[in-house]
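Same chain as my last thread, 658 residues:
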Amino acid sequence: MDTMEERAAVRDKDIMMAPAEIRIAPPRGFSRAAYVKNMEEYESLYREAEMDPEGFWARVAGELAWFKPWEQVLDWQVPFAEWFVGGQLNACYNCLDRHISTWRKNKAALIWEGEPGDTRILTYLELYREVCKFANVLKRLGIRPGDRVAIYMPLVPEAVVAMLACARIGAPHTVIFAGFSAEAVRDRVLDAQAKLVITADGGYRRGKVIPLKERVDEALGDDSPANRVIVLQRTGAPVTMRPERDHWWHDLMKDVTASGCPAEPVDSEHPLYILYTSGTTGKPKGILHTTGGYMVGTYYTTKLVFDLKEEDIYWCTADVGWVTGHSYTVYGPMANGATVVAYEGAPDYPEPDRFWKIIEDHQVSIFYTAPTAIRSFMKWGEEWPQRRDLRSLRLLGTVGEPINPAAWEWYNQTIGRGRCPIVDTWWQTETGMIMISPLPGAIPAKPGSGTLPFPGVIAEVVDEGGRPVQPGKKGLLVIRRPWPSMLRGIWGDPKRYQQQYWSQFPGIYLTGDGAVQDEDGYFWLLGRVDDVLNVSGHRLGTAEVESALVSHPTVAEAAVIGRPDEITGQAVVAFVTLRGSIAGDDKLKSDLQDHVGRVIGSFAKPREIKFAAALPKTRSGKIMRRILRKIAVGDPSVGDITTLEDPTLIARLREEED
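reply #2:
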């Protein structure tokens, strides 16, 4: 457990700053109107799910629209689960069709703002029509149920349209974050065997145009499985259109109507999407989510965790390129008939009050963002939110990584003005839905704690033998029972799925995160315990960055570690040995950082690169990253080095630091 002890050290200090006896009760007025009003109601709901999980989830599933009822709630053949077996439904139908037969057809579904300041509002009926038209476009281009479609777009309304249109015709989508490089796009398109790519000429970020179509051209060679590309004209930037392969979005949409496109009934276990996330090897994992269980989980958690009401204006700041954008910008909120806000650009463009201006302009009532963003807001200063009227807010949320108590308190006082409950949510790409979080009207908050599991989630902290640990002791966070929105596998690699998540404790899901449970049963999340970093809420495999560095002609070997950072959570630090007699200098450091940016994406660039004559290794050749972590933070202790091949190397590395 040494590695986890080390990685948790900084957060431990924060936990000590927030004693277990500190509890912040939900505002009484909020609780009175909440779906779950007090701890007694939460405990009753939790017991119901614990005693009869299949009956509990069947009751929730009954709130959605099904074309065919299920025959069996759960078929659990460890580690493979099928939920709502034999049932048929459609995710798009549940997000759109079932609302347009009611008064909600004229309710705003999407309020969108672009970075330059342009805005669009689509009602549920208007969004439905756009989705049906684009679904007809996809069918005209030969996309059939089961065909994979890659979406590589800025956060514009058409990205949401594309996702829902794919779901409507039963074509699993794989959304690729617009910050990824051409190589990352190529890898994902090849792995998913996507037949079509949907992109844009570019997107805006801090006033600059990100050349998305140019990257797609670089990514798709003659051997690519994608033989069609649809291009949205977003920025007007000049692009090269390849005859026969490339099509303008607006030209295709002119030739179709919204009629004749009923939602395709698909099996509950039909793939809805593949989303690639970083792992402990250099190859990203394609996390597979299917339709029925995922929709049940995201629908219900959106409703209860955010206490989502008909009149709310809801804003999750995540891009749809990440799972949070899938679950809590698109599928969960729209299954609830919510009005969703989406914003294309940076939070500090053109001024550091951009988010607060959006809240003021659109009267946002629920705001869900990342601790990394909150720490940036703190750094920019209170004067920016104080310029704006934030009285419309009634609930705040955080996602992506543990939030330290100091950031929690700033968020509570400066943004929420002490009157908005904060839901500090823990979940993963793999879980599909929120797993640990306060229910805002019921569960008292403890700054820095995710509090308690969502009903139907059996979470526990165990040691490396799978035994429950005592309160206050660090351990591994596991989930003991299957849940509806759980991943169904790693695309094309069932052995990797079984080995990574289910092999250490058969039948129990290993999250890969460390945690502590206090005397009240509250969970305190400590972050990753494997070689996956969390940089600004983005999961990033150390092996991915190492592979990118070693692909540079000057690099012989590289080891990447994460260093605690008050803004981004973790900063990437790379120790690099160079080939032959090549000398390291600042220019080469900059070149290597840019190289990683080109291979993976700018968010993966190492914050710091340290040149080393050699890396500390065991006699069997394993790099001892724990020593590099100590050196990176200036910790003089290195622990047991009896297996180190060259113990004198530590002193030399420290000298290079000095």
